[in-house]
Amino acid sequence: MKYSTLLVALVTVLGLSACDQPTVVNVPAAPVAVPGPAGPQGETGTQGAAGLQGDTGNTGDTGSTGDTGATGYDGVKGDTGKTGGDTIVIVPAPAEPL
Asked: pLDDT tens, 88-97?
């Protein structure tokens, strides 16, 4: 039993050490470009095309009611009426209570 455990440990160590380990390659960083001085200013651009006509706006709200008007002037007074002449007025007697 002692030899079998020792043999398994030895085979395990040899098996793990026989594996191909990848080599780590350090890639150098890319050089950073440093901008140079600014060049001369370019020419002014051409005028753009005219814009489109906008849509018609919405109708506004109804206005509020106005104030009440002033009282009118008194009219012209009429002529005095004619006298009754021979006219007779009959007034009935009041009815008796029930």
From this structure: 888 888 888 8
